Amino acid sequence: MSLAPRAVLVHRTTEYEELVAHHGTHGQAAYFLRSRGRDIEEVAERHQRTRRALAEVTAAIPLTWRQARVERADLDRFLFAPQDVVVVVGQDGLVANVAKYLTGQPVVGIDSDPGRNPGVLVRHRPSDAAKLLASAASVSVDELTMVEAVADDTQRLVALNEIYLGAAGHQTARYRLGLEGDGGVVEAQASSGVLVGTGTGATGWLRSVWQDRGGRLRLPTPVENRLLWYVREAWPSPATGTTLVSGILTAETHLVLTAESERLVAFGDGMESDALELTWGQSVRVGVCGDRLRLAG
């Protein structure tokens, strides 16, 4: 007998909860904020809106369904099942945070604080949850393209917006860069790292780099099998070049980076705590991911 669907509510600790946890009490947190020209009531009100959104979405889950709840910090330890329906309650970035841990489960993005979030990924209001969950099996979804990095030791990293490859912190990253199948053309580089982004990421970090380079390459759409990549602040020297600094990756092309530093990292969507690590001589291959994020429209 097949199991009933499970609704997995994904959320993150609010700023108010973090402040109270750090300072011990509401009063001490309020004093801390006042000393910096802020009012805790604004922070507490946003916290209450998030709590109300979570309560409304929880109440909308069909009675025959199973339920689970996971906080953003615990995503890398949570086991998602094939029959799950993932309900993200929070900001757009929280959808990107959960995307890398999924394997085709449908995702419903609920905006917990309308007006403060762009709503690119959290497209729905808490009041929409009952209708969306009741028709979860037939609801229309957009299949959003993701980016994937696979190291030569089988480490794998997936991201919805972008993958950054470079040195941890602000040190210079040293590596050799080339396009797979490009006649063996490889360039030694020293830079602030390499950014490879999707059409979803074109609303964030990727867009800022794209604008800085004059917008000469067409930005991909979220569902398009096309990525853009940029080398950040490549440094010219007798040993390092600046020729291969931007380009397009399709489903058939990959960027290959070989570390020439003692330690390089690759992380996705700003999650530095869940990074892939490369040591001297290791290579990583970056391109369009075969998996898609199935986001309710």
Instruction: Classify the helix fraction into a percent range.
Output: 10-25%
Low-pLDDT segments, ≥5 res: none
Output the number of helix runs. 6
Which sequence of SSEs, written as H and E, runs from N to C? EHHHEEHEHEEEEEEHEEEEEE
Rg over CA atoms: 21 Å
Structural class determined from secondary elements:
alpha+beta
List how many beta strands DSSP finds: 16
Chain-averaged pLDDT: 93
Cα distance spanning the termini:
30 Å
What is the multimeric organization of the chains shown? single chain
| Main beta-sheet annotation | 10 strands, mixed
Task: Characterize the overall form.
Answer: globular
Instruction: Tell me the β content.
Output: 25-35%
